[in-house]
Design a protein that fits this description.
By secondary structure, this protein is mainly α. It has 2 domains: 44 residues, no CATH class; 122 residues, no CATH class. It is 71% helix and 2% strand. The protein has a two-stranded antiparallel sheet. Helix 2 packs antiparallel against helix 3 and helix 4 packs antiparallel against helix 5. It starts with 6 loop residues before the first strand and ends with a helix. The structure holds zinc ion. The site of zinc ion (ZN) has 8 residues, from loops.
């Protein structure tokens, strides 16, 4: 299947393969549509490739979901404070909600980046999710164990995403070499 994996050059019709930056015949630079068409061909030809892309997509959706949950839960806790507390206490609560929003913004940004640049997107989202927990754990080590199952689930989905990104890159490179 791999030997037939090419799309015609938009200019001269010569076959363009993965890894080409320009047409080997007329040197027209390979455009975005051609790259997407190649990707679609590989998608159609390989169940494995489709499975990898699904795992990458799932990791992106997880970032988006957890990001939104951070805002929702943080907001619910903050706005359901029944009575005005002491000034210092309100400040701490506001700062906590602010931190939740910052974490959420990082994760949602990561999910958005994932669509075009999965590796960067997952990295941004993972850092946004993990760094605050590490900081908190440095102050209060036991907090790291809170919600352990949930955290393990998030880590598994993210790691699956990273592995799938590496596998998809290897597959594209193999297709590029196999022409
Ligand atoms: Zn050409």
């Amino acid at each position: 299947m791999t030997t037939t994996l090419n799309v015609p050059c938009i200019d001269c019709g010569a076959p363009i393969h993965f890894g080409d930056t320009e047409c080997p015949a007329c040197f027209t630079p390979v455009d975005k549509e051609t790259l997407e068409a190649l990707d679609t061909r590989l998608d159609a030809a390989s169940n494995d490739y489709r499975a990898m892309k699904t795992r990458i997509l799932e990791a992106g959706i997880l970032l988006l979901t957890v990001g939104l949950l951070h805002v929702a839960v943080g907001g619910f806790v903050y706005f359901s404070i029944p009575e005005p507390h002491a000034e210092a206490e309100r400040f701490v609560m506001g700062a906590t909600f602010g931190a939740d929003c910052a974490v959420a913004a990082g994760m949602i940004l990561g999910a958005w980046l994932c669509r075009k640049h999965p590796r960067h997107g997952l990295a941004v989202g993972t850092v946004a999710w993990l760094v605050p927990q590490m900081l908190l754990a440095a102050v209060a080590p036991l907090t790291f164990l809170e919600g352990g199952l949930w955290k393990a689930f998030v880590i598994v989905v993210l790691v699956r995403g990273y592995v799938a990104i590496a596998q998809a890159e290897r597959l594209r490179a193999a297709v590029a070499r196999s022409r």
